[in-house]
Design brief:
The protein has 10 helices and 12 strands. By secondary structure, the chain is an alpha+beta fold. The relative contact order is 0.17.
């Protein structure tokens, strides 16, 4: 599937968020995939020098592949800059990116669309440290982070504090949600369709940042071996969330499937507008399950690139 070699693509990766290392791996994989597909590709490792990025965008590329993860690249910031410069880019626009990164706002919108989300609320960190704000087990996580950064689960009998003050750098408030038992699943959305459901199994305490990206940190069962009705419902929930937030291109939704004690309940945890493109990433796996190669996947993303939204 060769493309016009004159079509110029700038891949932006790296960044300064806690997910920088993952973004570096994603960016390099995307560059290789686009080159294999026949594009004229340049990579740009974004640090703190926005002026250097603006210079790299002149002359304008035909499109930008945004391979950044976390705040700065996933929250609408880089999207706003590219909108101002009228340069098409992959993934979601400013509004959808900002909403999806803000877990509080995203949960409200997703719930209004009829998608079940874990019950909980936002609490001051001082109150969370003073005592349990919800019955155990519960989950504590930052309001505006991605990829399980800063997440902690409090089980009955745990003696550790719900927040490690020495490493917490995510503001004076946090989300506290009911812990949903059962199985960790994820759904990839490509445009207006679900690519399918993967179950993630890990020997770690939960599917945290290390389990997501470290080699051997988790086992992906693709497609997930869950009842067809639950499988189809998970796909529907992810597509509804994608649409409710106004996302475009590729997203990945993380869910919990509670099949404990005869239950059959699904809860959507979050929507990732910049899912990983590393060798252990879930979206490329689900694309491959649909017989879409990695070069075909990233090519599709580039061809869908646009401004606004």
């Amino acid at each position: 599937m060769k493309k016009n070699i004159t079509k110029k693509i700038l891949v932006i990766y790296g960044g300064t968020s806690s997910e920088r290392e993952v973004s570096l791996v994603s960016g390099k994989a995307v560059i290789a995939g686009l080159e294999q597909a026949g594009y004229d590709v340049t990579g740009f490792d974004l640090g703190t020098d926005i002026a250097a990025l603006v210079a790299a965008l002149n002359p304008k590329p035909d499109a930008v592949f945004n391979a950044l993860h976390g705040p700065g690249g996933e929250d609408g910031s880089i999207q706003g800059l590219l909108d101002l410069l009228h340069i098409p880019y992959t993934h979601s626009g400013v509004m959808a990116s900002s909403l999806a990164m803000d877990k509080v706002a995203a949960k409200k919108i997703i719930a209004q669309a009829g998608v079940a989300v874990p019950p909980g609320g936002v609490f001051p960190v001082s109150e969370i440290l003073a005592g349990d704000v919800l019955p155990r087990p519960y989950v504590v996580k930052p309001i505006r982070e991605g990829s399980s950064v800063g997440v902690r689960i409090m089980h009955a009998g745990d003696n550790k504090p719900p927040i490690d003050r020495s490493s917490w750098k995510f503001g004076d408030h946090a989300i506290v949600e009911k812990f949903i038992p059962g199985r960790e699943i994820t759904v990839a959305i490509m445009g207006d369709r679900a690519l399918g459901v993967t179950e993630i199994k890990t020997d770690l305490a939960f599917y945290d940042y290390q389990a997501k990206y470290a080699s051997g940190g988790s086992i992906h069962v693709c497609p997930a071996e869950i009842p067809k009705a639950a499988y189809d419902r998970a796909c529907t929930m992810a597509l509804l969330a994608h649409q409710a937030l106004g996302c475009r291109g590729i997203t990945r939704s993380d869910l919990r499937y509670d099949d404990t004690a005869g239950k059959d309940e699904l809860y959507l945890l979050e929507v990732n507008t910049q899912p990983g493109m590393t060798p252990t990433s879930l979206v490329p796996e689900l694309a491959a399950y649909n017989k879409i190669t990695f070069p075909e996947l990233v090519s599709w993303m580039v061809e869908q690139a646009s401004c606004g939204g």
